[in-house]
Amino acid sequence: YQLKTTMKLSLLAALIGSAAAFTPAKVPVTTTSLNAEGELLEVKQKVPCFGATPFGGEPVFIGENYWDKLTLDYGSEATGTFLRAAELKHGRSAMLGVTGFAFHKLGMTLNNISPHEYLSVTQNVKFADLAAMSPVEAVKHIPVEGFAQIFAAITLVEIYELTHKDGKLAFDETVAPGLQPGGLTGDLGWNPLNVRVTDRRRLSELQNGRAAMFAISAWVAAETIPGSFPLPLPW
Predict the structure, then answer these.
(1) Distance from CA of residue 61 to its chain's centroid?
(2) What is the CB neighbour count within 10 angstroms for residue 60?
C-alpha cells in the first residue's frame, strides 16, 4: 500500500511538472530584436493611439490589441504615425464632403453666391443646373477639367508635405522628409492663428473626421439606394 501511494504521488508530481512546462509565460510590453551575434538592434515600445473619449474621460482605444500588432509586431512607432496621418487625411476629406453635401441639400449653392453663372462655359455647365440635381448627380456632371484641377490641388498639398519639414523646404535632406520613417504626419505647419495644438485638439479632429466618414457614407447611400438609411434627414 505504501509503495502504491508513493508511486501515485510521484506520478502526480510528474504530471504537475509537465503541465507547468506548457504554461505560457507573461510577455513583456517592450520587445527586442537581436541579430545573429546577439547584439541588441532595436527596442520597441507601445505606441499610443488616439481613441475615443467617453463623456470627457480618459481616451480609450477599442482596437488597442490590433494597434499594438501593427506597431510592435509588424511595424514601429513610424508605422503608427503614418496610420494616424492616413486616418486624419481621410477624415478631413470626409468633413469637406459632409459640408458640401449639406450645403447643396440646404440650398446654399454657388448659383446663389457666385457672380458667375457657369461652372464651365465650354461644357455649358451652369451652377443653377447643378443645384437642381442631387449632390451625387451634380458630381457626375463636373467636367473632366474640373476634376483635373481638384487633383492638381491635392497633388500640390502632398508634394508640399513630402518636401517640407517644420514648415520649411528641406534643402539639405538627401531623402525627402515625407519619405523618411514617420515623415508623413498630416501636419502641414500652417497655423496662421497660432492656435495651441494639444493632444485634446488632435483627438477632437480625429473624432470629427471619423463621424464625418460615417455621415458621408450614410448620406450617399440614402441618396442612391432608396430605403437604405432608416432615419429621417433634415432635407
Answers:
(1) 13
(2) 10
Specify whether the CB–CB gap between 203 and 91 falls below 8 A.
no
- 200 burial via Cβ count (<10 Å: 0-12, 13-18, 19+): exposed
| Rounded alpha-carbon distances, angstroms, from residue 141 to 114, 124, 134 | 18, 11, 11
Mean pLDDT for back-to-back runs of 10 residues, the chain (235 residues) = 45 43 40 47 65 64 74 84 90 96 93 91 93 94 94 94 86 86 83 86 89 94 84 73
Cβ burial of 94 (10 Å; 0-12, 13-18, 19+) is buried
Residues constituting the chain: 235
pLDDT at 19: 38
Q: Which set of grid coordinates corresponds to residue 6?
A: 508513493
pLDDT for 233 equals: 74
Query: What is the structure's pLDDT at 23?
Result: 36
